[in-house]
Amino acid sequence: MVLFTIKFVQRASLFVSFGGLITTFITTFLPLWKTMNSDLNEMENWYEGLWHMCIYTEEVGLHCKAFESFLALPLDTLASRVLMCISIATGFLGVIGAGRERMKRALLILGGVFIVVSGITTLAPVSMMAYIMVVKFWDENLPDVMPRWEYGEAMFSAWFAGLLLVVGGAFLFVAVCMGDHEEKLQNKIIARNQEQRPRTQYYRKTEIL
């Protein structure tokens, strides 16, 4: 009994990749990539994403403001924004390819490549921003009183989304390999049947004689 068929693996790839794509899309626009809480004023919490910066106070609540200038963005934020947009675009193309079960082998491989690229372009910016935050957090040149950015919830969801996309693309490659293996087995069976047919015809002729 075959536990994992080609259709099952391909549908699993579609399910996992679609979940990663939706999570990536939501994470891209969440203003929770960075969080900061000042010891001088514990009533204020600062949040920063790729598109907005927000401040939360108990009196006013949450107030967000979009970044005014695209060129004035920090380099890590600008690169992360571009990479996340590329991730969404390639993930969308890959999910379309994974959703069509009767597509040709080359197109399925291309869909898997798009999904894996989408996962990598999701993991790259969040890992880069995490590294920069760690370096700045432990920077000895900055005074201890100065508040520092820390990891926000969106960074963890971005890591999770990137892993889902990579796993989904890998599943699609597994489905392609399973299809190639099944095709080889079918060709072997056909070749054996063709070899046995002349022998049976020869045996019938000898029986008639």
What is shown here, in short?
This protein is of the alpha+beta class and 209 residues long.
What does this structure look like?
The chain has 209 residues and is of the alpha+beta class. Helix 1 packs antiparallel against helix 2 (75-98), helix 1 packs parallel to helix 3 and helix 1 (6-28) packs antiparallel against helix 4. A 5-stranded antiparallel β-sheet has the order 4-3-2-1-5. It starts with 5 loop residues before the first helix and ends with a helix. The chain is built from 4 helices and 5 strands. Strand 3 and strand 4 form a beta hairpin. It has helices spanning 6-28, 75-98, 105-137, 153-208; strands at 34-37, 44-48, 52-57, 61-66, 150-151. The mean pLDDT is 84.
Task: Quickly list its features.
4 helices, 11% strand, alpha+beta, elongated
